[in-house]
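Case study 2.
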Amino acid sequence: MKKVPKKKEGFTLIELLIVVAIIGIIAGIAIPNFLGARSKARVTRAFADMRAIADALEMYYVDNTEYPSENDGLDELKTDGHITSLPNDPFGTDAVPGYRYYTNAAADTAGTAWLLVSNGPDGDADVTEATAAFSWADATRVAGQLGGSDGADEGYGVADACWYDPTAGATSSGDLARGGP
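Prediction:
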């Protein structure tokens, strides 16, 4: 009886190359989607944080018939017990970790309207009161979100390019904001 030579076990070079190519293609698709999902989650968190601060600002207004001045800032909400802690902006910097707070009055005077601003995914402060054409006029104010998929894309006289546009991808420039009342 003849012995049949045993076939060597293992993978051929071609099989290994095909597997490596498939893994590379899957990674090429998955990594950008993961980064986009991470950015969307941070945008959602920023809007949720700003909503909580907005609720505290409105409770402060009910109790005091005015909003905190810019000089007093959001820390006044903690002092009066309207919020237990102020969340940090998920897109904040070491120098400015929190949300920027503006009112329609002088820095040392209580205002009748407010704006909370986050740096947005690019991490740059694109919208400030010093931004060209910034306006507190009733026609340009927005009560609610600015930027993002559910927010207004224009407000406060600022060009829409300064507000975050989610259709431009994870590296979109522009800020996120919430205005009130």
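The two ends are 95 Å apart (CA to CA).
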